[in-house]
Write a structure and sequence with these properties.
heterodimer; A: 106 residues; mainly alpha; 0% strand; B: 271 residues; alpha/beta; 9 strands
Chain lengths: 106, 271
């Protein structure tokens, strides 16, 4: 299980970094290997669909991993949480504007 | 006046209940909907409802939730990995617990979700109690004893801590809001003749905005409990003490009548 870092990670990850992180978290949610997800991703044109509860669990995991609150209220509408790539894009867009977990008291 | 509706699946029951509600000027007390197989839907009906919802969400995203979103507040199906066997429960509970801080950010979940009430009921001691876990364990025990003795078990509607397989949602003294969460007050599983059934009681139900998704979510909840405890899935009975069809922009009489007609047509085509 992921843990909350003592200090938030300041360096903004790239979209590919975030896709890797989302895939790793999705593997934990689905109890499968990352390799299996990558194979599925390749078979579906480079992306994988997700259900909203899976995406919410992933955001929570990455919140712990990066020590930052990575989503806003409006990000949690189901239209925003449809796939690995769209979630990674959303988290990338949010990065500069979000406060650290410590700052928001999470 | 009370209404009683039966349907073979979620779609058939919901469409019939909507028709009866519209016959009664769009509201009723004690609407009781019995669904023979609440794990099944007519896909064409679901598509008609999804289209109605999406049209309104495009006009105003907060006007109505998707059916899937409503269902997920009762049971987050995608986090239940049935193939894990008994471990599926622990995985589901852990994923929900982990998700909770983020889930609470959503405008509809500020006061939690129904599923959270099932698995993290707040006790007087300030801890939480997993009502679903208790229900499943007791149903498993019933099954084990049934195999040994060849007897059927019956269990009644009760309170969470002391008794068996009921799960209240409403928290007295805490849930003081007149409107909104929680509209679902109580669910009760009962075992009869080797089949697990579910009864759910709503104090208030907005039928178009929440009804279909609630029936889907309750059906999934029932299936989870039945599968994990090793019993067949029975029927769902949902009682709405007070129910209205819906109101506001996009829910006028004409729009609702059109939705009913589309669903009835879809029901015929899907039958």
């Amino acid at each position: 299980m992921t843990t909350v870092p003592t200090k938030p990670i300041e360096t903004k990850p790239s979209v590919p970094d975030l896709i890797t992180a989302v895939l790793a978290a999705l593997a934990e949610v689905r109890c499968v290997g990352v390799v299996d997800l990558e194979a599925g991703q390749a078979a579906h044109g480079g992306d994988l669909e997700m259900a909203s509860p899976e995406a919410v669990a992933i955001i929570a995991m990455l919140h712990s991993r990066f020590g930052r609150q990575l989503a806003k209220v409006e990000d949690l509408e189901p239209e925003q949480l449809t796939s690995v790539v769209s979630l990674a894009d959303l988290l990338h867009r949010r990065w500069p504007r979000t406060e650290s977990a410590a700052e928001v008291g999470s | 006046m009370a209404l009683f509706v039966e349907g073979s699946n979620v779609s058939e029951a919901w469409v019939e209940a909507l028709a009866r509600l519209l016959d009664g000027e769009g509201e009723a007390v004690n609407l009781t909907v019995a669904i023979d197989d609440p794990t099944q839907e007519t896909l064409a009906v679901r598509a008609a409802i999804d289209a109605f919802v999406e049209e309104r969400r495009q006009a105003k995203s907060r006007s109505i939730e998707r059916v899937s979103t409503v269902a997920n507040t009762i049971f987050p199906e995608s986090l239940y990995l049935e193939h894990l066997g008994e471990s599926a429960e622990g995985h589901l509970y852990e994923m929900e617990r982990l998700s909770r801080p983020v889930s609470h950010l959503h405008r509809s979940n500020k006061r939690g979700t129904y599923f959270e009430r099932f698995v993290a009921w707040p006790t007087k001691e300030g801890e939480t109690f997993n009502q679903l876990d208790q229900a499943i364990r007791r149903l498993r025990t019933a099954r084990d004893r049934d195999q040994r003795r060849g007897n059927a078990y019956e269990m009644s509607l009760t309170t969470p801590i002391e008794e068996a397989i009921a799960a209240p949602v409403f928290i007295g003294g805490h849930d003081r809001q007149i409107m909104g969460f929680p509209c679902l007050s109580h669910v009760s599983f009962s075992l009869q003749k080797g089949v697990v059934h579910l009864t759910a009681i709503y104090r208030n139900h907005e039928f178009i905005k929440r009804g279909y998704g609630n029936y889907v979510g309750l059906g999934r909840l029932l299936r989870f409990v039945a599968v994990q405890s090793g019993w067949p899935v029975g029927e769902l009975t949902c009682i709405s003490a007070s129910v209205t069809v819906g109101s506001g922009a996009g829910f006028g009489k004409g729009a609702v009548s059109d939705l009913l007609a589309a669903c009835q047509q879809a029901q015929k085509e899907g039958a």
